[in-house]
Amino acid sequence: MRTADPKKLIKAYRDLPIGDRDDELCGIVDDIEMAETEPGIWEMTALIVGPGAWPRRRPRWLTGLLPGRRQVRVDAADVASTGVSVRLLKRADELGLAPVEHALLKHFGTA
Amino acid sequence: MRALLALVAVTALAGCSSRAEKQLEAVKSVRSILAEWALVEAQASKGRSPQTYADEMRQDSKDELEKAAKDLAGQPGAAQLVAKLRAGSPDSAALKQAADRLEPLEKSLEAA
Amino acid sequence: MKPLELFLGVLTAVGGFVDISELVFMSQAGSRFQYSLIWVIVIATIGIMVFGEMSGRVAAMSRQPLFNVIRHRLGFSLGLLTLVGALISTLITCAAEIGGVALVLQLLSGWNYTLLAIGAAAVFMLTIYLMPFKWIERSYGLLGLFMLVFGAAFLALVPSWHQIGGGLVPQGPPPEQTSTRDMLAYGYFAVALISAIMFPYELYFYSSGAIEDGWSSKDLLINRVTTFLGFGLGSMLAITLVCLSAQQFGPRGISPEMIGTVVLQPGLAFGKVGILLGLLGILFAIGGAAIETCLACAYGVSQFFGWRWGRHKAPKEAPLFTLAWVVVFVLALAIVLTGIGPVDLAEYAIVTSIVVLPLSFLPLMLVARDRTFMRDKANGVLANTMGWGFYALIVVAALAAIPLYLLTAGGKL
């Protein structure tokens, strides 16, 4: 997505659920990275997933108190599509998403 | 000094009304529990309720009366009445009578 | 559309409509204010139909359950606040339901309350672990139809149709109850009834259930029929509780302080059989609610943080979701074991839930009218008008809830 308004970009991606290549849920978009790829045109360059992104959300006095610092950067090239949710081109474990869940799935033999 | 006295008076008044409200709440609760218990006894005496149900409701009524009566410390007559009923095995008529005896107290606390 | 599917869906909604809060507050409302609060129940029922239909439609069209919608529309911080509020109120409700089930089992068996509460929680956990989602919903919902004995008792005890009809007209308390204390208590009961009928956990569960059942745009008619007919019939059952109380408890000076008192209503009509059927109805209705509230908490947390969720997956395939509902049951049981009675817990649940309601329903309204999500199934003029109208009502009720609770000592003054 390319837009002149960075707020639209944030609204289009942030807080959407993420599904991997196998259509399994693997997190929520906690924040995004974006860049001005052309003068006045902004594009999303990466999704940021994990509690490490929370302190950047407002109000910072509250979000700064939340535990967890881990975050995963998902490059825009790994995003297949977006709409009511974000679809990825790879599996969650290939991108380091939902590590706790995957550890448990491996433990139970269902990964 | 006057401001302090006024603050104490207002707090005391608020405390008083809070005590009266707690007593009113307790009396209403006690009267309802007595009426519930009376209905259980009435149904049980006609063989219209399972034995286990009636026994458990009797015990629950006594337990609920004990909780409600904690706020009746300032009303010794009512507290004694409740204690007597809890200790005995009153029938439906006695329970209804007890609930009726507490009605004037409820009305006076409402008017206060 | 499969007729049997539809029929079972409606029956499940009817049998599952009444939970412990409705049981307690409907009975107390009828006893204290006779038929004068029936109109509030009707309005609240229409409200839950409107929002219920919207949540099912949003889930079917966007494949997004309510908590995903809440986070996306409110953002992280406000969404987290909503989640925390929802978890607190729903957890308290779950504890009230487990306590209520233990009380009913004690009335049936005479066994120890604590052991029954632990046993009940264990049975609910096994139910969720072993049964597929559809049958978790259906089994308790259909068995909850024992509650129809209250409807039968209502008819057998010769209701006053004239007074019931009068209760449908918006009004205040009865003419002989117009003191300040009575007016405040009437206001409190009105808010409590709205909260009891429009509990947010019902929509969290319903919208997640729609996705568990794989609903799509083809299921919108099932959604409408379930919410309108199911909730409507369920509400009629709830209204019979008010009427029975007005007729049988009010004149006797009873404002039920004990859950077991409520079954005296079918007992008055049918004796032992009425009491037993009433107890069974309450057992399964609030048992089902215990499971719904637990799953609603687990759905909320999982959806907010993007975990795998759902009973359409095996428990091991959604490990964090499974852990979440186990933890909720353990916490709810811990609350029960503190000794706080189910009736008191139901009251706390009512007050905390109505406060959370505006934050839960606002994102739903915003998404349901958004054509990028809903395509041609976005809210029309009627849904928008009714939705915003009920939203305004919820906001007023939410603001009034805590002051009225404090001023009336929870309706007891």
Structural notes for this entry:
- The complex is a heterotrimer of chains A (111), B (112) and C (413).
- By secondary structure, chain A is of the alpha+beta class.
- Chain A has one domain (2-108): SH3 type barrels (Roll), CATH 2.30.30.240.
- Chain A is built from four helices and eight strands.
- Chain A has helices at residues 6-13, 60-63, 92-95, 99-108; strands at 2-3, 17-19, 25-28, 31-38, 41-49, 72-75, 79-82, 86-88.
- In chain A, strands 1, 4, 5 and 6 form a four-stranded antiparallel sheet that branches. A four-stranded mixed sheet of chain A has the order 3-2-8-7, with no helix packed on it.
- In chain A, strand 2 (17-19) and strand 3 form a beta hairpin.
- Chain A is globular and about 50 Å long.
- By secondary structure, chain B is mostly helical.
- Chain B has one domain.
- Helices cover 84% and strands 0% of the residues of chain B.
- Chain B contains five helices and no strands.
- The model of chain B has no long low-confidence stretch (mean pLDDT 87).
- Chain C has helices at 3-15, 20-33, 38-62, 66-109, 113-130, 133-143, 148-156, 161-167, 180-197, 200-212, 220-249, 259-262, 264-270, 272-305, 319-337, 342-368, 371-374, 381-408.
- In chain C, helix 3 runs antiparallel to helix 11, helix 3 packs across helix 18 and helix 5 (113-130) packs antiparallel against helix 15.
- The model of chain C has no long low-confidence stretch (mean pLDDT 94).
- Chain C is 79% helix and 0% strand.
- The N and C termini of chain C lie far apart (51 Å).
- Chain C is mainly alpha-helical.
- The A-C interface holds A 14-18, 24-28, 30, 49, 54, 57-59, 62-63, 84-85, 98, 100-101, 104-105, 108-110 and C 62-64, 68, 71-72, 75-77, 79, 303-309, 314, 316-317, 319-320, 373.
